[in-house]
Design goal:
The structure is a single chain. This protein is of the alpha+beta class and 211 residues long. 24% of the residues lie in helices and 39% in strands. The chain has helices at 10-26, 81-91, 96-99, 101-104, 116-129; strands spanning 2-7, 29-39, 44-53, 56-60, 72-78, 137-145, 154-164, 169-177, 183-192, 199-203. Strands 5-7-8-9-6 form a 5-stranded antiparallel β-sheet, covered by helices on one side. The chain has a 3-stranded antiparallel β-sheet with strand order 1-3-2, with helices on one face. Strands 4-10 form a two-stranded antiparallel ribbon. A hairpin with a 4-residue loop joins strand 2 and strand 3 (44-53). It starts with a strand and ends in an 8-residue tail after the last strand. One of its GO terms (cellular component) is fatty acid synthase complex. InterPro entries: Fatty_acid_synthase, HotDog_dom_sf, MaoC-like_dom, UPF0336/Enoyl-CoA_hydratase. Residues 72-170 form the MaoC-like domain.
């Protein structure tokens, strides 16, 4: 909700309101509802904009009945500096091997590496948005870390349906490979698959930068 105060002059307010709606549209926001509240004592009016980000992508899930053993999907992402910093800030894991180049140079890795659970987060994204997709609920996740992930690596999560269990439970192989097709994380998830097919809008978040 965006609140903007306008003078209680019908002509001026109408023009400024139209300008504001166009400005919001230019930034990718669709105005869903406009609510005006007048306060003529102070000759001001509060205009409440209820907006929705129009920069969305639609995703259709695969419900339990449509899942097949051997079915696959993948999801890729390149590890960038901001990813490491955001993950550290979000998780509270400030281990210097991830953040301090001088410290990391003295370790067995010889350089900074990504958090291990960063790969886990990519697996979660793949399961939630690719296969089975929206409506999936995690039950458990097993992971074995085989190789370090470094800044600039492009990771690809490869999912494969291993087994359909009773009560909508599904076992999924969750493997993460780097750009050299080296297996960096091996694992398996157990999830509750969606019961019904649905198409949902996934909001594209605004760009986050540092410095």
């Amino acid at each position: 909700m965006l609140i903007i105060c306008l003078e209680c002059d019908p002509g001026s307010a109408s023009k400024r309101l139209n300008d504001l709606v166009r400005a919001l549209a230019a930034t990718g926001h669709q105005v869903l509802q406009i609510e005006a509240r007048s306060d003529c004592t102070n000759r001001r009016a509060s205009i409440h904009f209820y907006c929705q980000d129009s920069h969305m992508t639609q995703v259709t899930n695969t419900p339990y009945e449509a899942l097949e053993v051997g079915q696959t999907a993948s999801y890729s992402k390149t590890v960038e500096e901001r990813d490491i910093q955001l993950f550290a800030a979000m998780s509270g894991d400030h281990n210097p091997v991830h953040l301090d180049a001088e410290y990391a140079a003295k370790t067995m890795f010889k350089e900074r590496i990504a958090h291990g659970m960063f790969s886990g987060a990519l697996i979660s994204a793949a399961v939630a948005c690719e296969l089975p997709g929206p409506g999936t609920i995690y039950i458990g996740q097993q992971m074995t870390f085989l190789k370090p992930v470094k800044l600039g690596d492009t990771l690809t999560v490869r999912l494969e349906i291993l087994e359909k269990l009773p009560k909508f439970r599904v076992r999924i192989a969750t493997r993460v490979f780097n750009q050299n097709d080296e297996l960096v994380v091996d694992g398996e998830a157990e999830i509750l698959a969606p019961r019904k097919q649905q198409t949902v809008d996934l909001t594209v978040l605004p760009e986050i930068t540092f410095g």
